[in-house]
Design a protein that fits this description.
Elements (H helix, E strand, L loop, with lengths): L2 H81 L6 H24 L5 H36 L3 H15 L17 H8 L6 H9 L18 H26 L6
Helix pairs in contact: 1-2, 1-3, 1-7, 2-3, 3-4, 3-6, 3-7, 4-5, 5-6
Length: about 260
């Protein structure tokens, strides 16, 4: 091989090597750019997933906090209906309805956001609060009427004292339950009816309420009726059930949302 051909081949080889190197370098660079882009996409997806989990955690925490607050306000409103010194507490009833409506809204929001593990505890809270609301609507008016009679007795009103003693004797005698809205009264009620109607500072609605519950044993009396509870006893039981449901919900929420960690 002569010198000119050798030089030509060497030159061609150099050109081909340069081209090949350029192609290989471009491919490596392109592959590196793809890897970088994929890594960026993966990092963005991971960050988005973490942000989603944090947002969901915050939503659940907020909704459960609102639920606990609304449940406490509703239970407080039911308690005030029993203990308020006002016999006619229209404002108290309005506050109770407002508190209960607010509770139902946040309960629905919490049930929607909560994980499956919290559903049973949330349902327990719902049953307790709804039961307390039902109880107070049925029982609190009678409690107010009884409190009005007690207050008259404390002032020394002789008619009120006689009416209260008549109610006590009726309960002790084992008289049957009777609602003034349905049918004629049993003979055992005649003395009590006359005694209550003789108290001028009790209105007709209060008298009817007292008669409808005249034979229901009070909290401190022996309960001969398996299916009858005094209003005070029922209220105490509801409060205990609420405290238990609240404790259970908080415990489960802390475990599920992993807030027990330091």
């Amino acid at each position: 091989m002569d010198t000119e051909m050798t030089v030509a081949l060497i030159g061609a080889a150099g050109v081909c090597g340069t081209i090949a190197g350029t192609i290989v370098g471009a491919r490596i660079q392109a592959h590196g750019g793809y890897a970088q882009a994929q890594a960026a996409r993966d990092a963005a997806a991971t960050a988005a997933q973490a942000a989603r989990r944090q947002a969901l955690h915050d939503l659940r925490w907020t909704s459960l906090t609102a639920l606990l607050r609304a449940a406490a306000e509703c239970m407080e409103a039911t308690g005030q209906m029993y203990t308020s010194s006002e016999v006619r507490a229209d404002a108290g009833r309005a506050e109770l309805e407002r508190a209960y409506h607010a509770y139902r809204l946040v309960q629905a929001e919490a049930e929607l956001a909560a994980p499956t593990e919290l559903r049973e505890a949330l349902d327990g809270m719902r049953r307790v609060v709804m039961g307390a609301w039902d109880d107070v609507r049925m029982r609190a008016p009678t409690e107010r009427a009884q409190r009005a009679l007690d207050e008259l007795c404390r002032t020394g009103d002789p008619a009120a004292i006689n009416a209260k003693e008549s109610l006590t004797r009726l309960r002790a005698s084992g008289a049957p339950l009777w609602n003034p809205l349905f049918g004629n009264p049993p003979t055992e009620y005649e003395v009590v009816i006359d005694a209550l109607n003789a108290v001028p500072r009790l209105d007709r609605k209060q008298v009817r309420l007292l008669l409808a519950n005249a034979a229901v044993p009070l909290e401190y009396e022996h309960n001969r009726f398996e299916n009858v509870r005094g209003a005070r006893r029922a209220r105490t039981e509801r409060q205990r059930a609420y405290e238990a449901a609240r404790h259970e919900l908080i415990a489960v929420a802390r475990d599920v949302l992993n807030t027990n960690e330091p």
